[in-house]
Amino acid sequence: MKYYKDTAGNVYAYNAIQTPKDGLIQMTPEEVEAHLNSPVDPQYKTQFSVLEFRDRFTIDEQIAIRQAQFTDMEVGLVYDNFQAAQFIDIEDPRVEQGIDLYIAKGLLAPGRKTELLEPELIA
Fold it and tell me: Band of the pLDDT at 110, cuts 50, 70, 90?
């Protein structure tokens, strides 16, 4: 296989019997190696099902929030909103605000915010 590129950086591969189209420049072995073994940017998941998001909380945290939502209307509204969502996007400012409220109400330790809002690396 021989590799060629155009002026825009697009890469084309041709076998021994194919003729490259006009205007293409044959790539050097170093360019071919870099093209074939280019590092892949890691992908991160920021949207979770309600159950996946709930699983980010410990059992003790879930119980504390569940109990508080019965007696504290603010906690109840955040809890209801999380449960009613089609999915939880940890980049949505409302999610961060909800976690901040849980922390302010003593339902979560302050350090948990970073962990709960951490995107998940997709393998």
Answer: very high
Task: Supply 53's token pair.
Answer: 């998001």
* ∠ CA 4-11-37, rounded to 5°: 105
pTM of the model: 0.68
**With helix as H, strand as E and coil as C, how does the chain read?**
CEEEECCCCCEEEECCCCCCCCCCEECCHHHHHHHHCCCCCCEEECEECHHHHHCCCCHHHHHHHHHHHHHCHHHHHHHHHHHHCCCEECCCHHHHHHHHHHHHCCCCCCCHHHHHCCCEEEC
Which contiguous run of DSSP H or E holds residue 88? strand 88-89
